TrEMBL record:
Residues 598-696 form the Sec23/Sec24 helical domain. SUPFAM superfamilies: beta-sandwich domain of Sec23/24, C-terminal, gelsolin-like domain of Sec23/24, Helical domain of Sec23/24, vWA-like, Zn-finger domain of Sec23/24. This is Protein transport protein SEC23. It is a peripheral membrane protein.
Length: 848
């Protein structure tokens, strides 16, 4: 969708140590917890690096969506290529103990053992580190080109759920850390020693026990992930309430300026949304154009609405009439579903003579009215007296063009003499409206479609400030409908705080995540609490936070510690505090450190750090150059020189890193694959908040070739995969393409079977992924085939020996097939991966 240039995805917020935050708008989300985690989903495999053949239809365990997969990391000593998600076990081993109140020799500072690996597996469902070991020497460890950090997904769904603790946590009075399995405990007195600051703390008798075996009764002392739940009732159990009471309102706002073709697709998507929602959902329907129409569900057999002017907000008298009148504007779906369907069917296309971008749209006014309706009579009461329904209310805005009337509006033409001034004013108004929605615990999701520019820089702050998403679509069809349904159904942990602390030898240099630096009132600190804290509008399934660390002094101990905390309110209005504690081993060996690096996690961290600075087209060009320099520096620091040559070898321990960085350099985030800069702005914003798996896919596309019998083979993302007798699926995170070779397409029977298998695979890959990707199917030689080829590395330019080394599947082709494959490619100016590495005077690492 073509958009005008502008907008940004984040700002830099300074940390106390002179480093900075990258605060970005929230798009990818997590679901809320009942009673403590976000409703469970099956554990699943991390992105499968060695893709095994799959029968058609592919079995669900092998193909999970990014929203289900979340983030994970294998235990130390296990190959990342076979790493799978681990359930969260309770470790039945002895916690470190203080003998007679004095630390024993066994103080918890041990190298990673099998038991420690078990706890690392539990934490790795929520936290991924770029390396599983840490160099002790500051100078050797702080490598700016590579960096060290963590990707944290605190609201990820896991099965089984983390242990739930219904009491107040024990916290260190010195540094504020939560008690954890790495603490030293004195059973006779209940005192515990904090591993972060080595200070003794009283547990007020909580950990006083007859023997160390009895300490296993406290989950926080035997597992690395726990949830503390504050139950508002004095009863030990949960208070039963009906779904109707807990159901938060859902308002759907519809652009009434659509042409006939777009309206038909939108109506189909809206009917699908109504049919997919639980019948207990409280829903409201609003259309906006020159006026705002608020539909009344009390009228049957006719679509009746109260109409308000779009150029100004209703006065207090009109608002009282709206709230206390006879109209029913919010109703449970089981009461009004037939009326809602009839309202959607009654929508009519635009009949005026204005072009699309000049039509009157009062979106800001419509959102303001929707928020007033959600707040209801409580708008006249103090916030502390308001009894709120469960979870976040949601406002889904269907947009087909720019906001040109009322609050947050801009002139339809950018040549207007006061356009720049009016745009800045509109951005502030939209941001203020989003902040007001956040104060009401309402999330505004904006879903745009069509070819008309919507002025992304103006509209996006509304979604960003409220904690919602902003998504562009080609049309109002299937992809739009899926995103509409998934946006409406996801639940959130709201009023969130994200907190992170580490051993005092580390300093946090950057934080990238969907929030802003917390105020002192929101962050209750201990005397020497040096943790990083963010206010987060919502915790949802597909969010992630990226933290970068560096050593501020040499490490003397054998272990370092990290703790990540997510505090939020779940849909049952219970305050949840999720605590994840991780211990990493230290080493003096550079070789051991490099071997412990997870090159995919490192690539995602580098990618997010780089994209956070690419706020304009010129910035993106600068970041592409920085990728070149970063790659050279990694080879200089960690690689080896080639014998009798000026070339330098890229580290063999990082076989995937160089290629992923090359994809980042030429892909849609920094390159020119996507047509308009505003589309790249939206993609960057999504990427900066995406979970690890979706981020990795947006960086580096995944190619799967269909084989006989309905199986699929994963291949490198090279254009050599475009073989005329095969079908391939390319997954690039927000886009998925099915490409049918010309020879295969000529055989109708085999072509139909291959296409059906590919579509089944795509359904498994995208199940519950949010936002749902655009899926395109096309044949070889068509104009749309360029979408796929532009995302593949032009390896046809490499010599045959390099092609076979990096694309072994070529060896299965006979000479005639290889000649035909070579003849189909034309000369292009784009460099192949090997050519790019040679231009940097580097030798690429051999693929594993």
């Amino acid at each position: 969708m073509s958009q005008p240039q502008g907008g940004s995805e984040g700002t830099e917020i300074p940390l106390s140590n002179g480093a900075s935050w990258a605060s970005v708008t929230p798009d990818h989300q997590h679901q809320s917890v009942l009673p403590t985690p976000l409703s469970g989903s099956a554990s699943s495999n991390r992105a499968m690096h060695n893709f095994a053949p799959v029968n058609t239809p592919p079995p669900p365990p092998n193909f999970r969506s990014a929203s289900q997969i979340g983030i994970t990391s294998p235990p130390l000593g296990f190959s990342t290529s076979s790493a799978a998600f681990s359930e969260i076990p309770v470790l039945h081993s002895d916690p470190p103990v203080l003998m007679n109140g004095v630390p024993s020799q066994h103080d918890g500072s041990l190298a990673l053992s099998s038991d420690d690996s078990t706890n690392w597996s539990a934490a790795s469902s929520f936290v991924l580190f770029t390396a599983h070991a840490v160099l002790k020497e500051k100078k050797a460890f702080n490598i700016p080109s590579l960096g060290f950090g963590a990707i944290v997904c605190p609201g990820r769904e896991v099965v089984p759920i983390p242990p739930s603790i219904r009491r107040s946590p024990c916290r260190c009075q010195n540094c504020g850390a939560f008690s954890n399995l790495y603490c030293s405990i004195a059973p006779s007195t209940g005192q515990w020693k904090c591993p972060f600051c080595d200070k003794m703390n009283s547990s007020s008798g909580t950990y006083k026990a007859a023997s160390k075996e009895n300490l296993e009764n406290w989950p926080e002392l035997v597992t690395s992930v726990v949830d503390y739940v504050e139950v508002s009732s004095g009863r030990p159990g949960f208070v039963p309430v009906s779904e109707t009471i807990l159901a938060a309102p859902l308002m759907v706002l519809i652009d009434e300026n659509l042409d006939d073709a777009h309206l038909q697709h939108l109506q189909s998507s809206l009917h699908g949304l109504l049919d997919s929602l639980p019948l207990s959902t409280r829903i409201g329907l609003i259309t906006y154009g020159r006026t705002v129409s608020l539909y009344d569900f009390s009228q049957t057999g006719v679509a009746a609405a109260d109409v308000f002017p779009g150029n100004s907000l209703p006065n207090k008298e009109l608002q009282k009439t709206l709230l206390y009148g006879t109209g029913v504007y919010l109703a449970p779906l089981h009461v009004c579903i037939s009326v809602a369907h009839s309202i959607v069917s009654s929508l009519r296309p635009y009949r005026g003579d204005l072009v699309e971008d000049a039509r009157y749209r009062c979106m800001g006014t419509a959102v303001e009215i929707a928020l007033s309706l959600i707040q209801g009579p409580s708008m006249e009461m103090p916030r502390s007296m308001v009894k709120k329904s469960g979870g976040c209310s949601r406002v889904l805005v269907c947009v087909g063009g720019p906001n040109t009337l009322g609050q947050g509006s801009v002139p339809h033409s950018q040549s207007h003499p006061s356009y720049m001034y009016l745009e800045k004013k509109a951005i502030k108004q939209m941001e203020h409206l989003g902040q007001e929605a956040r104060r009401q615990d309402a999330v505004v999701d904006i879903l745009c479609a069509g070819t008309c520019p919507v002025r992304v820089p103006v509209v996006q702050p509304l979604a960003a400030a409220s904690g919602g998403v902003f998504i562009l679509h080609d049309d109002f069809g299937e992809s739009f409908g899926l995103n509409l349904q998934r946006a409406a159904k996801r639940t959130s942990g709201f009023r969130g705080i994200f907190e992170a602390r580490s051993s005092d030898c580390f300093s946090a240099t950057h934080v990238i995540g969907p929030g802003k630096a917390a105020t002192s009132s929101a962050h209750e600190t201990a005397r020497n609490d040096k943790s990083v804290c963010m206010e987060v509008p919502t915790f949802e399934e597909c969010q992630s936070f990226v933290m970068s660390f560096e050593l501020n002094k040499d490490i003397k101990g054998d272990n370092v510690y990290f703790q990540f905390i997510a505090q939020y309110t779940n849909p049952y209005l219970m305050n949840v505090t999720r605590v994840v504690t991780v211990r990493l081993a230290t080493t003096n060996s550079l070789v051991s450190y490099v071997r412990s690096i997870d090159d995919e996690v490192a690539a995602v961290l580098i990618g997010k750090r780089t994209v956070a600075f690419a706020k304009t087209a010129s910035d993106a060009l600068d970041m592409r150059a920085s990728i070149d320099e970063r790659t050279k520096q990694i080879a200089i620091k960690l690689g080896k020189p080639l014998n009798k040559s000026k070339l330098r070898c890229f580290p063999s321990e990082l076989p995937k890193l160089g290629e992923i960085l090359f994809h980042l350099r030429r892909g849609p985030l920094l390159g020119n694959i996507v047509g308009h800069e505003d589309e790249r702005v939206v993609l960057r914003n999504l990427f900066l908040q995406a979970s690890f798996d979706l981020s990795l896919r947006m960086l580096s596309p995944r190619v799967l070739m269909h084989r006989e019998g309905g199986t699929f083979e994963e291949l490198p993302a090279y254009d050599l995969a475009m073989q005329s007798n095969a079908a391939i699926v390319l997954d690039h995170g927000t886009d998925i393409f099915i490409w049918m070779g010309s020879d295969l397409s000529a055989d109708e029977t085999h072509s139909a079977a291959a296409l059906a298998a590919c579509r089944t695979l795509v359904e498994e890959l995208t199940d519950q992924r949010f936002p749902a990707p655009r899926v395109l199917t096309f044949k070889e030689g068509t104009s749309q085939a360029r979408y796929l080829q532009s995302r593949l590395i032009p390896a046809h330019k490499d010599p045959p020996y390099e092609q076979e080394a990096r694309f072994p599947q070529l060896r299965s082709l006979n000479p005639d097939q290889r000649a035909r494959l070579k003849s189909k490619f034309f000369h292009v100016d784009d460099l192949s991966f090997c050519e790019w590495m040679r231009s940097l005077k580097l030798v690429p690492a051999e693929p594993h």
